[in-house]
Each structure stands twice: as C-alpha cells, then as structure tokens.
Amino acid sequence: MKNILLIAASILLSAGVHAATPRVIAHRGYWNTEGSAKNSIRALIKADSIGCWGSEFDVWMTADSVLVINHDAEIEGLNIEHSTAAEVCSHRLADGENVPTLEQFLTIAKNLNLRLVCEIKTHDSRSNEKACIERTLAMFKHFGLEDRVEYVTFSRNGLIQLIASVPAGTSVQYPAGDYIPEQMKAFNGNGLNYRCKKLRKEPELIKRCHDLGISVKAWKILGTEDLRWCIEHGVDFITSDSPETHLHELKKIVEP
Ligand code: MG
After folding, report:
1. Distance 57 CA to ligand 1 centre (A)
2. Which segments within 70-186 are labelled E, that is strand?
3. What is the reported pTM?
4. In angstroms, what is the span from residue 72 Cα to ligand 1's centroid?
5. What's the CA-to-centroid distance between 11 and ligand 1, angstroms?
6. Mind listing the pLDDT tens digit for each residue in 118-151?
7. CA within 13 Å, CB half, 175
8. pLDDT higher for 156 or 188?
9. CA-CA-CA-CA dihedral for 130, 132, 136, 137, to nearest 10
10. How far, in Å, is the centroid of ligand 1 from the Cα of 254?
11. Which of 122, 184, 222, 238 has the least C-beta neighbours within 10 A?
12. What is the distance in A from the centroid of ligand 1 to the CA of 175?
C-alpha cells in the first residue's frame, strides 16, 4: 500500500500537484466521543489529548458584550446576540458543562498544546460583529495566545476586518467557497477553506492556492476516501468530526 501511495504521489508531483500529510483539526473540538459535547471545554481538552494539530470553535458576542462559544445563533430559542451572558451561559451542553465564555475557554487552552482555530460568527448587526472581532483579538492578546490562533469567518466584512487587524503571519480563513484564490490573494489573505466536495470537483484550486502562497483546508472530511484524496492532492489541513479515527487512518496511510 505504501508503494502505491508513493507512486501516486510521484505521479501527482510530476503533474505539478503537491502531495503532503494534512494536519488534523477537530471540528468544534473532539465531541464525537463519550462524555463530550460540541464546542465544550471538554471537547477542546479531548482534541488536545489525542494529538490533533488544532481544534475549531465558534465565537459570538452577547448583548452585554461577553464573548461566548456556540455554533448556532440560538440556544433553545434564545438568540445569543440579543441575550445577556448570564442567560446564555446558564444553558448546559450535552456533557453537562455550561456554555463556556471565550475567557473560560482560553484559560484552559493556555495550558494545552494544540492550535486554536477560532471562527467568528456572522452577527445580525455589523457593529456587533465588528466589536466581537475587536474583543476576540484583544482576548487572545491578553492570554498571550496570538501565536497559537488562526481565524475563520464566513463574513466578507469580517474577513476584511480580520486581515487588517491580526498580527503579521496570522492565518485568516474564509470557508464560504465563493472566493477564488486570486481574490483571496488580492485581500492579502493567506488561507482558503473549501468544502472537501468542492475541492474534489475542482482540484486545480489547490495548486492555484499553493502557487499564490495560500494554504488550503478541506472541511469536512467524511471518510477514508476523502482522507486519501486530500493526502494525494496536497491539502494542507483537514477539519474532521471524527478526529481520532482520521488521525489513526492518516497514520496507517502514511506510515503503514
Ligand atoms: Mg465553525
């Protein structure tokens, strides 16, 4: 099997495609395991414990300007952006812990090793989103974690603000899939994040990104076939809901 992959890699390299071992990011932490929950502190710790390169999480700002971690705009009918932190954080996640604030999250993250992949959510109000980005950046600075964070946003306004505000060298990713690599380069962006399905239909996007010095993340990886494809086509990072399985499979493929 190793020989087949090496042959495939050399064919791809000779065709100008860059083969590499992608780094694994746990999508919303390692939640897909007993005693964990999406976007929980426990999921962050578990992602670190299995050796993920990074862990992704989602940040909102509440009506009283507190940064909290959650994927959706609402929790059981409560709109985060228009509710107080006390209201939002009183809700419990599936693992029994309360919805965490970013401050609580980073207090724990500071003592872990993995990279922090911080998605800033698209808020209803542009001024709220702008303030959310400013406060998030300030909090990473406060915790001394600026060199371990990278940012993701689906917001075009947020993308421009982040690129203009982050310290030099910080990766800012845009996963909506509607920007081509050349547009991202024109914004001085250094990372694109595409659905794996889109990359498999348009693999030339990977070479175009790499030629421009832009890294490529694939989300979400659904199975071994996706994983093999990403390895063979030089995807730099994969985002996974099953990071332990994919880390194991990755190891088997590259070190059989
Ligand atoms: Mg996210």
Report:
1. 6
2. 74-75, 78-79, 115-120, 149-153, 172-174
3. 0.90
4. 9
5. 35
6. 999 999 999 999 999 999 999 999 999 999 999 9
7. 22
8. 156
9. 10
10. 28
11. 222
12. 10
Task: Of 19, 89, 32, 50, give the one whose Cα is nearest residue 233.
Answer: 19
Give the separation between CA 93 and CA 102, rounded to whole angstroms. Answer: 15
**Structure token digits, residue 146:** 């600026």
**pLDDT range class, residue 15, cuts 50, 70, 90:** very low
For tokens 């982050």, name the residue. 166
3-state secondary structure of 176: coil
Query: What's the whole-number average pLDDT of the chain?
Result: 91
pLDDT of 6 over the 50 cut: no
Ligand 1 centroid to residue 133 C-alpha, Å: 15
pLDDT at 156 over 90: yes
Does position 19 have pLDDT exceeding 70, yes or no? no
Rounded distance from Cα 203 to ligand 1 centre (Å) = 23
CA of 127 to the centre of ligand 1 (A): 21
pLDDT on residue 16: 37
Distance 154 CA to ligand 1 centre (A): 9
What is the torsional sign of CA 67, 72, 76, 80? positive
Percent of the chain with pLDDT over 90: 81
Q: Please tell me the distance between residue 56's alpha carbon and the centre of ligand 1 in angstroms.
A: 6
DSSP string, 13-70: HHTT-----PEEEETTSS-SSTT--TT-HHHHHHHHHTT-SEEEEEEEE-TTS-EEE-
pLDDT band at 4 (very low <50, low <70, confident <90, very high): very low
- β-bridge pairing 54-61 and 115-120: parallel
Pick the closest to residue 193 from 234, 235, 227, 242 (CA basis): 235
